[in-house]
Amino acid sequence: MIIDCHGHYTTAPAAHSAWREQQVAAWEAGTTPPSYPSISDDEIRETIETSQLRLMDERGIDVTLFSPRASAMAHHIGDSAVSEEWARRCNDLVHRVATLYPDRFVPVAQLPQSPGADLGASIAELRRCVEELGFVGCNLNPDPSGGFWTSPPLTDRSWYALYEAAIELGVPAMVHVSASATPVFHATGAYYINADTTAFMQLVQGNLFGELPELRLVIPHGGGAVPYHWGRYRGLADMLGQPPVESNVMGNVFFDTCVYHQPGIDLLLDVIDTPNILFGSEMVGAVRGIDERTGHHYDDTRRYVEASTLDDEARAAVFEYNVRRVYPRLARALAG
Ligand SMILES: [Zn+2]
User: Fold this and answer.
1) Ligand 1 center to residue 132 CA distance, Å?
2) Which of 147, 189, 196, 269 is the most exposed place for a label (fewest CB within 10 A)?
């Protein structure tokens, strides 16, 4: 079985996105947003079967861990009440997708984070999603400000209540920023990758997993720049008097395979131990085109993993078993 740990509902029905615009406009005007539109099952089927599901079938991906569109989380817009309602609507929508296709999509939650707000609402929404709706993980934004990095590092105790809830619920968190609020950072080209790298270095500098040994974090997009600069992080850990990254970080951190060329995937698989790698593609998402050098979609990451030198056992671990281990609720979700 091939399980993609990283998919977003980027083709959500137009009425859903239009309502978000109305919600933001109402917040800016100090008025009440219109009620959320009625969206039929057929509209959802249409948006899924013509894009995400079609591509999964073409590429031989059995199951996708499916979360709301990451760039649309936009935690920097509005206030915490705006984020709470938006997260609920988005999570309810991906839950409907998972309900319509229970053997193909398993839902992962958006959290209603907001700059400066405590994590109470995020913990409540995570509990609702996991306990009532069968979600198996969440996306945790390390920078709800949208590029200004006003939050403390992920090792700060202000994050612990959320981590403790995730541990209690048995779900990992994927560290995932949203849209960039500054033209300095292109969202998917710069901000995503530098956020992955920043999160990893925060973990190298801290002792988060010494204090919370059951916490599991997924760093997407192949771990940002980390595998390429692995020697830098090992050396910095030594220089800073920190334990080796292998024991201080890598017992609890996993990188996905959202790297869009063969040499990048080969390097990831060479540098990072196989148990720390989860298959992911982030489609339909960041890079939608076809690579003229290969004739295949850049984000068809299964091809790169298949073409790597991994043996059969390691390949099966990346495609399925590591994802199941990191997302223990997945087995229950797939069993219906
Ligand atoms: Zn993503």
Assistant:
1) 24
2) 189
Active-site positions? 282
Q: What's the CA-to-centroid distance between 281 and ligand 1, angstroms?
A: 9
CATH (domain of 69): 3.20.20.140
Burial class (CB in 10 A: 0-12, 13-18, 19+), 264: middle
- How far does CA 238 lie from the centroid of its chain? 30
| Structural domains in the chain (count) | 1
The pLDDT tens digits for 126-175 are 999 999 999 999 999 999 999 999 999 999 999 999 999 999 999 999 99
* pTM of the full structure: 0.98
pLDDT at 285: 81
What are the tens digits of pLDDT across the range 17-30? 999 999 999 999 99
Within 13 Å of residue 160, how many CA atoms lie on the same side as its CB? 11
Range of the domain at 166: 3-335
Cα 5 to averaged position of ligand 1 atoms, centre (Å): 10
Distances (CA, A) of 22 to 10, 17, 25, 84, 153: 19, 9, 5, 15, 33
